[in-house]
Amino acid sequence: MRQATAPFSLPIPPSDAQASAAAATSARLSFREQMLQAREDAIVLTVNRLLAEKGFDAMTVDEVAASVGIAKASLYKHFPSKEALAAAAMVRVMRQAQAFVRTVPAELPPLDKLKTVARWTMALQLSGEMPSLPSHNSSLRATLMDTPDYINGLMDVSDQLGAWIEAAQANGSLNPQLPPIAVLYTMYARACDPVLEFLKLGGQHSDEAIVELVMSTCFDGLTAR
Hints:
Strand content: under 5%
Shape: globular
Helix content: 55-70%
């Protein structure tokens, strides 16, 4: 079974404005700087894949370097530790999450906005793209807590989800007796729900059907209607 997961990691296609900005930035960089940036991007993408496949504890720096095709000494020029590698991957995750949340149609009811995000995170886990991190790791946790881009992204996503949760409670589509923070953590838990993997291993349901089954248990409950 995979380890507990940090939320959100679906790649978001860049907008025209983002692509233009990236191209302008690239044009300002020297060839050497562009090569270094390309190598760093390759490292982060590789770390994201390995974290999804085997988790933080099983991933090794040697494995990352070999997968990218560089010496470990060269990798350390970009990232000084295994924790720094994971933190860089999670910064990428948070930026993607922020971008995805911004794509949720504003006209949707707040509960449907929350469901859109929940479906996204579960589909991502089923596709094997969700980074898997240990629930408790003091060194990694300390690194993440000291990474402003990660913390700021997490707070941004949490604030937006929190606003939708409170709006859904206000209009009666979510139980107003539940503490909003409990609902928020339930949303995040869908990104690392072991039920998804168990159902996938059973081979009886498609990924889309698995998502809808877990959506039903999450939002509708288990009692007969």
